[in-house]
């Protein structure tokens, strides 16, 4: 357990340190309040000094926003290639996040935030961090994410393919990009060997919120086994399966990629970008060296029943960024002893695909998300 230390009113203090990005506790912490200026806060953050906020909660949010505006004044320049532009952009965003994470707040031993005009964050923190144990220092930026995640969880995300909402937990990728869900909802189900007319068993690998497992169950698959390596995701998927009334059809298990046995249909929507995640929260987007994609392809043939299919749901954004080629993907499919039985494509509908100010706009505007229908042999 990491501990952060500081001095306040002449008295040495310490508290447990928590960071979702696994950054070490700050070596130096000073107290900041409503008198602290954004320029001063940015200078201290650049020097490696963290600020423990003791002022008004909303003023702390305003200070964080003002720091962000100052850090955004010099955007990263374009690289000589799409891949270099991506890496420069990501490096700049990571540097920005580290500096902004230097503005801290103290959660008391009951997860209470004792600041003027502070909201009651106890339930949101218990959902994200577990039961309270002791006073804990966390970045204000992270706490705002915890509060936002609580609202997502409370309100839910509408999924038209289900005619219902799913409720993402903190740290679990939310199905706000509905095009990949729609692909799974409309792809033709395989017709396995034998007298059955449709899949009897399906696996949903890396289930996250459980949304794809729920879609398969609603499409009539009798038994769906959903897996994930994240305990947060497994808890989230179980909650959603129960809430949708599908607990009798969907089993959530893990931590693992493949469950035991074979299935008529195996679905996997791996992280789309082959780059190293810098926190647990990024693992739904970034997959270092394409490890999950490689493991899915490598294990698929050995887990399919005769006549079964594997559905790989994957964006080609990495191809437009120069991080992977279509030839690489097809070679990996062939090397795993698989063949492509068909493919369904769709265009993204999210606003960033139309944001010309985004440094990665050229790649995002050309992106296509595909459902690759794969069979053994």
Write up what this structure looks like.
Keywords: Methyltransferase, Transferase. This is Class I SAM-dependent methyltransferase. InterPro entries: DNA_methylase_N6_adenine_CS, N5-glutamine_MTase, SAM-dependent_MTases_sf, Small_mtfrase_dom. The protein is an alpha/beta fold and 377 residues long. It has two domains: 3-153, no CATH class; 156-376, Rossmann fold (3-Layer(aba) Sandwich). It is 33% helix and 23% strand. It is built from twelve helices and 15 strands. The chain has helices at residues 38-46, 57-71, 82-100, 122-129, 140-155, 179-186, 211-218, 231-243, 291-300, 317-320, 326-335, 361-366; strands at 3-8, 11-17, 28-32, 49-53, 103-107, 136-139, 157-159, 164-166, 201-205, 223-227, 250-253, 263-268, 304-315, 338-346, 369-376. The strands form three sheets. The protein has a seven-stranded mixed sheet, with helices on both faces. Strand 1 (3-8) and strand 2 (11-17) form a beta hairpin. Helix 1 crosses helix 2 (57-71) and helix 4 crosses helix 5 (140-155). The protein is globular, with a radius of gyration of 23 Å. The model has no long low-confidence stretch (mean pLDDT 93).
In short:
By secondary structure, this protein is α/β, with parallel strands linked by helices. The protein has 2 domains: about 150 residues, no CATH class; about 220 residues, Rossmann fold, CATH 3.40.50.150.
Q: Which characteristics define this entry?
A:
seven-stranded mixed β-sheet, alpha/beta, six-stranded mixed β-sheet, Rossmann fold, 377 residues, 2 domains, single chain, 23% strand, Class I SAM-dependent methyltransferase, globular, nucleic acid binding, methyltransferase
């Amino acid at each position: 357990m990491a501990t952060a230390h500081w001095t306040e009113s002449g008295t040495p203090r310490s508290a447990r340190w928590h960071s979702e990005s696994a950054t070490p506790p700050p070596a130096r912490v000073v107290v900041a309040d409503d008198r602290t200026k954004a320029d001063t806060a940015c200078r201290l953050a650049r020097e490696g000094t963290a600020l423990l906020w003791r002022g008004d909660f909303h003023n702390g949010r305003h200070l964080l926003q003002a720091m962000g505006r100052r850090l955004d004044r010099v955007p990263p320049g374009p690289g000589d290639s799409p891949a270099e532009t991506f890496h420069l952009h990501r490096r700049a965003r990571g540097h920005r996040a580290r500096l902004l994470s230097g503005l801290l707040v103290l959660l008391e031993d009951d997860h209470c935030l004792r600041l003027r005009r502070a909201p009651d964050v106890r339930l949101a923190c218990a959902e994200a961090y577990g039961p309270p144990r002791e006073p804990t220092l966390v970045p204000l930026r992270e706490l705002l994410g915890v509060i936002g995640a609580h609202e997502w969880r409370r309100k839910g995300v509408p999924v038209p393919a289900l005619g219902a909402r799913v409720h993402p937990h903190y740290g679990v990728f939310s199905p706000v990009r509905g095009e990949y869900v729609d692909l799974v909802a409309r792809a033709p189900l395989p017709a396995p060997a034998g007298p059955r007319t449709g899949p009897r068993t399906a696996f949903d690998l890396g289930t996250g919120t459980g949304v794809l497992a729920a879609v398969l169950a609603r499409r009539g698959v009798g038994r769906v086994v959903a897996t994930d390596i994240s305990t947060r995701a497994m808890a989230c998927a179980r909650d959603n399966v129960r809430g949708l009334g599908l607990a009798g059809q969907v089993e959530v298990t893990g931590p693992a990629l493949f469950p035991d046995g074979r299935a008529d249909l195996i679905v996997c929507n791996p992280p789309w970008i082959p780059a190293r995640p810098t926190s647990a929260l990024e693992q739904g987007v970034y997959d270092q060296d394409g490890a999950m994609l490689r493991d899915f392809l490598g294990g698929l043939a050995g887990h399919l029943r005769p006549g079964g299919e594997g559905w790989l749901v994957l964006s080609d954004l990495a191809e437009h960024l120069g991080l992977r080629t279509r030839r690489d993907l097809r070679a990996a499919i062939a090397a795993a002893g698989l063949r492509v039985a068909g493919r369904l494509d769709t265009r993204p509908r999210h606003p960033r695909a139309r944001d010309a100010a985004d440094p990665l706009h050229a790649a995002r505007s050309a992106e296509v998300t595909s459902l690759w229908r794969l069979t053994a042999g």
